[in-house]
Amino acid sequence: ARSIILPSALPEIFTGIRVSFSLTLIGTLLGEMFGSQRGLGYLLMTAIGLQNVRMIMAVTLLLVLFAASVSIALIAVDRRLHRFAG
Asked: Which residues in 41-70 are b (16+ Cβ under 10 Å) and which e?
């Protein structure tokens, strides 16, 4: 099982991890927006309430850069695993 099943299943497992990352990030951000007193979600909601456009754009840019960089890294690993298994 360790030498046959795990190596062939690893690319699909990693694809699931890659997809679940985006859902986890959205869920965490929503939880912080409505149920926390610190974090980027809270900072974003506070900036929206104060109509602070610079802070809204800064937090949004930070979130986009983080999500994009992690996504690019996960896609690179995912492609390598699929190429190795295929």
From this structure: bbbbbebeeeeeeeebeebeeebeeeeeee
Task: Provide the whole-model pTM.
Answer: 0.76
**DSSP of 60-85:** HHHHHHHHHHHHHHHHHHHHHHHHHH
Structure-block tokens of residue 81: 């695993």
State how far the Cα of 67 lies from the Cα of 64, in Å rounded to an integer.
Answer: 5
Q: Which long-range contacts (CB under 8 A, 24 or more apart) does 38-46 make?
A: none
**Residue 65: φ, ψ to 5°:** -65, -40
Q: What does the pLDDT look like over 21-69, one tens digit per residue?
A: 889 999 999 998 898 888 899 999 999 999 999 999 999 999 999 999 9
Name, in order, each residue with C-beta under 8 angstroms of 66's C-beta and a sequence gap of 6 or more: none
Residue 59 and residue 40 in contact, taking contact as beta carbons nearer than 8 Å? yes
